[in-house]
Amino acid sequence: MERTDILETQNGQASAVGRALPRNASVEWPTLGLIIACYGTWLIAGFRLWPDYPLAAFILLALTVTLQSSLVHEVLHGHPTRNARINEALVFLPVGVFWPYRRFKALHLRHHADERLTDPFDDPESYYQALWKHDTMPFWLRGLLRVNNTMAGRMFFGPWLSAIGLVLGDVRLIRAGDRSVLRAWVFHLIGLAIVATIVIYGFGIPFWLYMIAAVWPGLSLISIRTYAEHQWSGDPEGRTIIVEKTPLSVLFLNNNLHVVHHALPAVAWYRLPALYRQRRAEWVASNRGYVFANYRALLARYAFRAKEPVVHPVLRATPECGGAAEWQKMRRAAGQKPAG
């Protein structure tokens, strides 16, 4: 069953819970409550636990960094209110330090063009490299990217590689005169200054220690989810994963059921499991069986082995090669069904 068919068959279900979906609810209280709980836990961990129980404090701080990252993802999709400015204000404090909200929003919404998923240039969240660009990289960087394609490597190096890549790319855009990127970083740095002040002078935690013991582990947890979210398939439906069960689902806001989120990106996180259960066989068929029972299965298979090659197996072999959408268009024009 194609995703369009799923969307059509889901319409009846969506209307059945319509009053609870974001476009019909003025406030999604579960999401708002979770935002309050996330920042509240962060403050309790720093003010109350850190002086007497530093290890427990850092565990909670890392978990709140993970959860806040997931909440930012939820907010940029239009939750928990209908007002984008209110939503942004709710996650204004970047406890995870990296990733300006407005930059993440702009890049992530581009990522949701499913026909362009995994394209090294058109998909901002692709971990693949174009062959011609990869061949110009120094050998140490090529080796680091290979390690980064293992699950252990992604958890250890991934947060830093993605942050450094974002900063370098955005510096180039700002120098080229992109004011929207500059504004995003100005807002982010204001929020970051507040976070740093609370951490250093309120909690009494050296900021370097906060980065190593809270931010890094928290973003490494997110890397568990993002590691295998997408893979190349000639069929766009086969590019997005399902991880069926995980105790981390609350921290990930059910984005382990990633194919459901991509099909229905406006649906709130707490609706995804029911939508998946109701039509499980159709979701599994739609993503061509790209399904794992849990993250332990992924870790067992790919902890120290790359799941995907660094170089994209099909796209961007030369600077003249088209991207994923163009490749798909050519196949359709030739009367071929999508591969995968």
Shape: globular
Strand order of the largest sheet: 1-2
Beta-strand content: under 5%
Radius of gyration (Å): 20 Å
Number of strands: 2
Main sheet properties: 2 strands, parallel
Overall number of domains = 1
Note the total helix count.
Answer: 15
Q: How far is the first residue's CA from the last residue's CA?
A: 14 Å
**Helix percent band:** 55-70%
Low-confidence stretches: 1-23
| Helix and strand run | HHHHHHHHHHEHHHEHH
Q: Estimate the mean pLDDT confidence.
A: 90
Structural class category: mainly alpha
Characterization of this structure:
The protein is built from 15 helices and two strands. By secondary structure, the chain is an all-alpha fold. It has one domain. Helix 2 (29-49) runs antiparallel to helix 3 (54-76) and helix 8 crosses helix 10. The longest helix is centred in the middle third of the chain and has 25 residues, at 151-175. It is globular, with a radius of gyration of 20 Å.
Helices and strands in order, then pairings?
Blueprint: H1 3-16, H2 29-49, H3 54-76, H4 84-90, H5 101-111, H6 131-134, H7 139-148, H8 151-175, H9 179-203, H10 207-226, E1 242-243, H11 258-263, H12 272-278, H13 280-286, E2 291-292, H14 295-302, H15 324-333
Parallel strand pairs: 1-2
Helix pairs in contact: 2-3, 3-10, 8-10
Give me some keywords for this one:
single chain; 340 residues; mainly alpha; two-stranded parallel sheet; 15 helices; disordered N terminus
Outline of this structure?
The protein is mainly α and 340 residues long. It has one domain (3-327). The protein is 58% helix and 1% strand.
